[in-house]
């Protein structure tokens, strides 16, 4: 599948590996893909990110992603659902961190085999984003996978990254509209 990636999409994937290495992560996650996408310039995805204000709020995005890691990867919807049952996730995180140190719930997703030559495997979620980017591209009638397909796939895959992007105004629909205009939503949402 990697042979279908454009130069920019390949740079995003290798950039994700670099982010994982810089952060000392044992695996490459959807978060690393997002951070690498935000590093790219001159593409539809970078234009959409700038239009939606993501590049100007990178620190806020990173803080939201860090907060989600501290919650053990729970989305805001998960946290709210648990609160509805009387479970205070913030209190649980505080107690676990008191006992085991800050970030104890961040976890390690070493479940996959080595999927990338860096020696750092991609998590199931990151692989899913790459696979969904192919579906997004094919759904649009594109033969190659570009950064725009990666960004759309990140917004389409349920989880923390899509949740954080939505909190910052970047849903599948808004990203699609920013990249392709009002009539851009002609493709099926990958899932």
TrEMBL record:
The keyword Signal does not apply. GO terms for biological process: proteolysis. Pfam families: Clp_N (PF02861). SUPFAM superfamilies: Double Clp-N motif. It comes from the Bacteria. Keywords: ATP-binding, Hydrolase, Nucleotide-binding, Protease, Repeat. One of its GO terms (molecular function) is ATP binding. Residues 2-185 form the Clp R domain. This is ATP-dependent Clp protease ATP-binding subunit ClpA.
